[in-house]
Design brief:
Elements: H1 11-24, H2 30-42, H3 46-51, H4 59-73, H5 78-82, E1 84-87, E2 90-93, H6 106-113, E3 124-129, H7 135-143, E4 147-153, H8 156-168, E5 175-179, E6 194-197, H9 212-217, H10 231-243, E7 247-251, H11 257-266, E8 270-276, E9 282-288
Parallel strand pairs: 3-4, 3-6, 4-5, 6-7
Antiparallel strand pairs: 1-2, 7-9, 8-9
Helix pairs in contact: 1-2, 2-4, 6-7
Length: 291
């Protein structure tokens, strides 16, 4: 959009101009994102945009929209701008400096849910390592009432956002938010059945070539997996082998499934499994503890 003029114009015209402006800046779904930005500014559902398409927009509304559209044109993640992200069956509050959860990561949630009966009443303890916004652990807790979650991260922004989401979803009685490295913050002696993680797995040398939302904005500590992308994964597999009673599930990058499966086998994990995402890429690998 050449950002919107201050003279009153119809909502539908603003929507169209926003779409064009975003497309020129490389946004892959410019119409959808134009709708989401306008819905956010006007606090109305997307459908309502079309039911009131002739509505004139006030100058103050246009000013707010202009600022948000400029941020998106700079390729700041949309969820940071609108402050929310839908993930699996929950809605998450979002802030800058926290990894934007991808649809591919829902594969990790589904992989663990396949091991947890929906009617189970016995408590199951799950460590979500590198929790970010809390997406994985809170989606699991919402889907399985018997689960108890340890949400662990090293950085303050993810811990703050996860605490906000725990409160918003009413899960404070089943989720502990803990700061520290890998499984270290979980007191020795506390039960851990499953460990799940979307760890940093992008090779250091590849980050700068990724899409601008990632390379320029997202926290590098949540992305950088070292020279081969596996530095954090190696440490987590060893930690989980020592403490997880049931098993470990990890999100991995394209082409990493084979070496990660080998690492799992070396740490005596059994029944190695792989799960593909919607694009057919092996996105999650894991295994169970013997016995």
């Amino acid at each position: 959009m050449s950002p919107p003029q201050d003279t009153p114009i119809r909502l539908v015209d603003v929507l169209t101009r926003t779409e064009v402006w975003l497309r020129r800046r490389g946004i892959t779904a410019p119409r959808l994102e134009a709708e989401l930005l306008l819905s956010h500014v006007l606090a109305m559902p997307r459908l309502q945009l079309y039911l009131t398409h002739d509505r004139p927009m006030a100058p103050e509304e246009l000013q707010v929209l202009r600022l948000l559209v400029a941020r998106r044109g700079d390729r700041e993640p949309l969820s940071w701008i609108t402050g929310s992200r839908g993930f699996h069956a929950i809605d998450l509050l979002m802030e800058p400096d926290v990894l934007d959860p991808r649809p591919d990561t829902e594969t990790l949630v589904e992989a663990l849910l396949s091991h947890l009966p929906a009617d189970d009443t016995a408590s199951i303890y799950v460590a979500d390592v590198g929790c970010g916004s809390g997406a994985v652990g809170l989606a699991i807790a919402s889907a399985r009432p018997a689960t108890r979650i340890y949400a662990v991260d090293r950085a303050e922004a993810p811990l703050r956002v996860t605490r906000r989401n725990v409160a918003a979803l009413g899960l404070a009685d089943r989720v502990a938010v803990l700061g520290g490295d890998l499984l270290d913050p979980i007191p020795v002696g506390r039960p851990i059945d499953w460990v799940v993680s979307n760890p940093p797995y992008i090779p250091s040398g590849e980050i700068d070539a990724l899409m601008p939302e990632v390379s320029r904005h997202e926290p590098r500590v949540a992305l950088d997996g070292g020279a081969d992308g596996l530095s954090v994964i190696r440490r987590l597999i060893v930690a989980a082998a020592a403490r997880a009673a049931a098993g470990l599930l990890l999100e991995v990058g394209a082409g990493q499934a084979r070496p990660v499966c080998d690492l799992l086998k070396r740490s005596q994990f059994v029944e190695i499994e792989r799960h593909t995402d919607l694009s057919g890429v092996v996105r999650v690998v894991g295994g169970k503890r013997p016995g």
